[in-house]
Design goal:
heterodimer, A: 410 residues, alpha+beta, v583 fold, 4-stranded antiparallel beta sheet, B: 58 residues, two-stranded parallel sheet, 3 helices
Chain lengths: 410, 58
């Protein structure tokens, strides 16, 4: 199969993917290849000594949550000891926003690509500000993680059993048409999910105070659905992986130190370069100086034609990530220059319902010099602090050059 | 009247390539103008051109 044909096949599989939210489980019992002393993280592979502040902070938090250490100091010694295996989420069919930490006893959502038969997994969203995924690890952060395991998880698991599979692509389609980009604006998607799941939460056999707490938590966590949407994209991108000769991207992700990409035609190979630092808007008390370089698996959304690629559909997002409404339209228009096709499902009302730019092609990126545009949350560069704002960033060209060099030599 | 003066005395319609500031200034003066987003080729252009030449034939 030639490159043109292979790329058409890759985007055909992306377009035909039908991904459903089918349930919830515990990471060690659910994720393929997850072992007892393993911590998964966002982005391409990285060792403890090269991890950025927020990822180290989140790892320390996960060790405390698992009860493997009693103090932060003990946790840091354990993390550096080599006793814990660190592995990318992507190596376990999973994704997680920002630090993306998944430890063995954390609850995860399960999604199934019913068209192609593959699965994807993701952790559950903790809210904004002081959260593990932004590197915070205070007592309140760890206690919320325990509440999620003890109360949120069983309610979600049982409610999803009662509801049956939820067609997540339809949720995303409706949300984009209502002003979400489904990366940094998830207000509509979370509201739609709350509406869909509430009748089944009400039927769960737990104290009604717990059910009320769960509904309030979802309502207060406007990014609650970003994790689920990311897993939809992971299940979609994985279905498009492994097509010989294809130069379509099937992963873009960051660990706060490196930015990594994968191509459909180059299997499990990572092409990495130093991550850029986002520029954007900051919470009171923080400045650009506090921002960590780009972090998280959430660029799987842009990989599948949503997020930064549909900013034209989400003008209100500029109040969160910076820029102007005109910029949001221009960002989307620019992405048509580097993508293979226009999405049959993700339509942008402000562009006369034009399909979103879908299927980033390495060759087009190299030809145009345009790299994918991303919107993102920003973590403090020091461990233990948390989110400082949200902003805009682009993938580094060096990843794409490395991928091209690899193709030329193979 | 020189050709250039003749041209400048006509109603102007402009296409601006690249830096949007020039487009904004013309619009502020109510000059008909279209903006084309363009930027100079990326750094490493020779290296990228050589890589592309090898890959595009596949």
């Amino acid at each position: 199969m030639g490159r043109a044909e292979a790329n058409l096949e890759a985007v055909r599989r992306m377009q035909e993917s039908e991904v459903f939210l089918i349930g919830a489980g515990i990471a060690k019992d659910t994720l393929p290849g997850m072992t007892d002393k393993m911590i998964l993280h966002a982005g391409p592979p990285i060792t403890w000594d090269r991890m950025c502040g927020p990822v180290q902070g989140a790892v320390i938090g996960a060790i405390l949550y698992e009860g493997w250490a009693k103090t932060e100091e003990e946790a840091e010694v354990l993390a550096a000891s080599g006793e814990i295996t660190f592995d990318p989420n992507h190596h376990h069919s999973a994704v997680g926003p920002m630090a993306g930490i998944i430890s063995p006893s954390m609850p995860v959502f399960i999604l199934e690509n019913k068209k192609f038969g593959n699965f994807a997994y993701t952790n559950m969203n903790e809210g904004l500000g002081k959260c593990l995924r932004f590197g915070a690890n205070s007592e309140a952060v760890i206690e919320r993680l325990h509440w999620m395991r003890r109360v949120l998880y069983p309610v979600m698991r049982d409610a999803l059993k009662l509801s049956g599979p939820i067609d997540w692509r339809t949720m995303v389609v409706q949300s984009i048409q209502s002003g979400d980009d489904c990366h940094n604006r998830n207000r509509n998607c979370t509201a739609l999910f709350a509406k869909a799941i509430a009748p089944y939460i009400a039927l769960c056999d737990y104290p009604k105070e717990d059910l009320s707490e769960v509904l309030k938590f979802i309502d207060n966590t406007e990014h609650f659905t970003i994790n689920i949407t990311m897993a939809m994209c992971k299940a979609t991108a994985d279905a498009a992986a492994g097509i010989e000769g294809s130069t379509i991207l099937t992963a873009m992700c960051r660990n706060g130190t490196d930015f990594g990409i994968r191509l459909s035609g180059t299997g499990d190979e990572w092409f990495v370069a130093p991550a850029n630092t986002p520029v954007g808007l900051f919470f009171p008390g923080f400045t650009q100086e506090d921002a960590n370089p780009d972090l998280g698996d959430s660029t799987i959304t842009e990989t599948c034609g949503i997020g930064g690629f549909v900013m034209a559909a989400a003008p209100a997002i500029v109040k969160f990530v910076g820029g102007t409404v005109k910029d949001s339209v221009n960002f989307t228009l620019e992405m048509y220059e580097i993508t293979e096709t226009e999405n049959e499902f993700f339509k942008i009302p402000a562009l006369d319902f034009r399909g979103s730019p879908t299927g980033i092609d390495l060759i087009r990126v190299l030809e145009t010099g345009i790299t994918p545009r991303i919107n993102t949350g920003m973590a403090h560069k020091k461990p233990g602090i948390g989110q400082v704002g949200a902003g805009l960033v682009q993938a580094p060209m060096e990843c794409f050059i490395k991928a091209a060099e690899y193709l030329q030599s193979h | 009247m020189s050709k250039i003066t003749e041209l400048l005395n006509q109603d102007m319609a402009a296409i601006n390539l690249g830096l949007e500031r020039f487009y904004d200034d013309l619009k502020a003066q109510r000059v008909e103008c279209a903006q084309v987003n363009w930027k100079p080729p990326a750094a490493n252009q020779d290296k990228i051109a050589s890589l592309l030449a090898g890959l595009k034939d596949r």
